[in-house]
Design a protein that fits this description.
The protein has helices at about 1-5, 20-35, 50-65, 80-90, and strands at about 15, 40-45, 70-75. By secondary structure, the protein is an alpha/beta fold. Helix 3 (about 50-65) links the parallel strand 2 and strand 3. Helix 2 runs parallel beside helix 3. The chain is globular and about 40 Å long.
């Protein structure tokens, strides 16, 4: 396992903001994993979801994120918090 995980790029990350479909996130994580990407960050704005759909959406997101057991996936509650952490604390360049 270490032999496979060691050469993964440490300077490439992907940031998803408020994904609307957990199935798409799961597919993206699988694709990123196939390219050797280790780090993925997800922003989920809890106020963007309303009613019963909010519970199902959040539950689905946790399920989708749990399927990426070999990747490092972090969740942020706001864009500002994610950018601050990535740019200021970790020195990442952000491209949109």
């Amino acid at each position: 396992i270490e032999q496979v995980l060691t050469p993964r790029p440490r300077h490439t990350r992907f940031l998803f903001e408020n994904p609307s479909n957990p199935s798409n996130v799961w597919a993206c994580l699988r694709t990123l994993d196939s390219f050797g990407i280790q780090y993925v960050d997800v922003i989920v704005h809890s106020d963007s979801y309303a009613g019963k759909a909010a519970v199902n959406q959040k539950r689905g997101m946790r399920t989708a994120m749990g399927s990426a057991m070999w990747m490092t996936v972090r969740q942020f509650g706001s864009l500002e918090g994610a950018v601050r952490c990535l740019k200021e604390e970790e020195g990442c360049l952000i491209y949109a």
